[in-house]
Write a structure and sequence with these properties.
The chain has 10 helices and 8 strands. The chain has 255 residues and is an alpha/beta fold. It has an 8-stranded mixed beta sheet, with helices on both faces. A hairpin with a 3-residue loop joins strand 5 and strand 6. The chain is globular.
Length: 255
């Protein structure tokens, strides 16, 4: 693939990336060429979209069918009071273009389902899942596995979060198949077992931490630097200010 060039404005805008040997001009051009689908323009999606836009990701797709409400503003930092009642996807697009006019934004004002997910994820290089329900998470993960697209997944509770990168269509350094989302969660939990954010509450800054980590993993995947969280689940306990990482593998019955 021929990478796009950077104009003078972009060279100055991304100067702090370009001086990093690990990214450099080639890495910045990979970011410009990248197409990233972000599922959800809410608590996790807000920092993901903001930081990927600022980083120079060339095309951001946004999947969201919700509208901005006042209770969102405690954590969904790309929306403001002037956006109340507007579709979140449109409000997010306006925020992205204020951050970086070089970014192309594609809106998908719909609810992602098992039926439409494969075509959506296939149109992008990777997907970042910022959804808040298991139905969407399973649909995204299954579609990414089917379409052979990397997935950066995160979830949050009241004061805790988790993060992993899924590439189940590839083998690891030991020659075994990488684990899938269903190796972490074989089936969705029964309805009502896991309380929603509205019922349980969530600290606004927590989703900022986890969404920013998602953006970092996406940048690593695009530029080919570092070690993405494949086969590793990062756990964050905000109250204890502690990060832990656990390894997980593909289950024997899913080989």
């Amino acid at each position: 693939m021929t990478l796009p060039s950077l104009n003078d404005d972009e060279l100055e805008r991304y100067a702090r990336h370009i001086v990093l040997p690990e990214i450099g001009g080639a890495g910045q051009r990979r970011l410009k060429a990248a197409r990233v689908l972000v599922v959800g323009a809410g608590g996790l999606g807000a920092p993901v979209l903001a930081y990927l836009a600022a980083a120079g990701v060339g095309t951001l797709g946004i999947v969201d069918d919700d509208e901005v409400s006042l209770s969102n503003l405690q954590r969904q930092i790309i929306h403001g009071k002037e956006s109340l009642g507007r579709p979140k996807a449109e409000s997010a697009r306006d925020a992205i273009l204020r951050i970086n006019p070089h970014v192309k934004v594609e809106l998908h004002r719909l609810r992602l389902t098992p039926a439409n997910a494969p075509a959506l994820v296939a149109a992008y290089d990777l997907t970042v899942d910022g959804s808040d329900n298991f139905e969407t998470r399973f649909a995204v993960a299954d579609a990414c596995e089917r379409e052979r697209r990397p997935l950066v997944h995160a979830a949050v509770g009241r004061f805790d979060g988790s993060l992993t990168v899924l590439k189940p269509f590839e083998v690891n350094e030991d020659g075994g198949q990488n684990p899938s989302y269903r190796d972490l969660f074989p089936e969705p939990p029964p309805p009502g077992l896991v309380p929603s954010c509205a019922a349980a509450g969530v600290v606004g800054a927590l989703v900022g931490v986890m969404g920013t980590l998602q953006a970092m993993e996406a940048i690593k995947l695009i530029t080919g630097i570092g070690e993405p969280l494949v086969g590793r689940l990062l756990l964050y306990d905000a109250l204890a200010a502690r990060f832990d990482t656990i390894r997980y593998k593909r289950r024997a019955d899913s080989q």
